[in-house]
Design a protein that fits this description.
Blueprint (H helix, E strand, L loop, with lengths): L1 H20 L1 H22 L7 H14 L14 H18 L6 H25 L5 H26 L3 E3 L3 E5 H21 L7 H29 L14 H17 L4
Antiparallel strand pairs: 1-2
Helix pairs in contact: 2-3, 2-5, 3-4, 3-5, 5-6, 5-9, 6-7, 6-8, 7-8, 8-9
Length: 265
């Protein structure tokens, strides 16, 4: 527990100024986090990082993470999607050039990882970049996710008896899950009193908070599912006591894009 707290404090000391500054700082941070997350996916699969398919995948993930403004100087007939499609074509070519040592299944997982991680961290950049409302909106979703995590962990340990989904994550309980969502609602209610965001409709945002808290926990379970499939406890070791980047951003990677789907940015 002491190690977890120390790591969390150090991470916040680094992360909070980046969130406040925004701009190029959060662009660079999001790209770095996405590349680390991609490397964790490779390592979990026991794939070599120093390889053509990793470097091409890295190019693809950078293409997705970058803010929209980074592509304004492209020729009119090219878009972000075209560059992404080029990286996928290059990945498919690797299967031929390596004589199927890197096979179509590997490329399929790489592509999924690029979209899953790249779109999630692009949403981090996009939310912070919302004019006038970006910082407050990003802090709102952090309050929702962190309140859910803290509430589920704390109450689950104390009163949790009924397993939520033991085949995927044996330590999570229904009591912890419900308590986490209640904590998210309380945290969001307090936050929105001071920083109204999104629809600027309190009860509308509370309904969305309920949805975001539930889907944030689903993002956590999704990560538990693929870690269990690959037989690893943590996605990485970069954060002592917490695991890897994917361990810490699993819920956000699921929820941040939802802000756009619900028309909040």
């Amino acid at each position: 527990m002491k190690q977890r707290v120390i790591t969390a404090v150090v991470a916040l000391i680094i992360f909070i100024p980046v969130i406040i500054l925004g701009g190029v700082w959060i662009d660079v941070a999001a790209i770095a986090l996405a590349l680390i997350g991609l490397s964790e996916m490779f390592i979990m699969r026991k794939r070599i990082i120093i390889s053509p398919d990793f470097f091409i995948s890295a190019l693809g993930i950078i293409t997705l993470v970058l803010p929209d403004g980074a592509f304004v100087n492209l020729p009119k007939y090219l878009s972000r999607f075209d560059i992404f499609a080029i990286t996928i074509a290059l990945l498919l070519m690797v299967t031929v050039l390596t004589k199927n040592r890197t096979n179509i299944d590997d490329i399929g997982i790489n592509t999924l990882a690029i979209v899953y991680i790249g779109n999630g961290f692009h949403s981090l950049v996009a939310v912070r970049g919302v004019n006038g409302d970006g910082l407050a909106l990003l802090c709102y979703i952090l309050v929702v996710i962190w309140s859910t995590d803290i509430g589920a962990y704390s109450f689950g340990r104390k009163i949790g008896k009924h397993k939520l989904w033991p085949a995927i994550s044996p330590n999570k309980t229904w009591e912890g899950s419900i308590a986490g969502t209640v904590c998210a609602l309380v945290g969001a209610a307090i936050y929105l009193q001071f920083f109204p965001v999104g629809y600027h409709n309190f009860w509308g945002m509370m309904i969305l908070t309920l949805i975001f808290s539930i889907f944030g926990q689903m993002g956590d379970l999704v990560e538990s599912a693929y870690k269990r499939y690959y037989g690893v406890k943590d996605s990485g070791k970069i954060l002592p006591g917490h695991g890897g980047i994917l361990d810490r951003f699993d819920s956000l990677l699921f929820v941040l894009p939802m802000l756009h789907w619900f028309g909040i940015f």
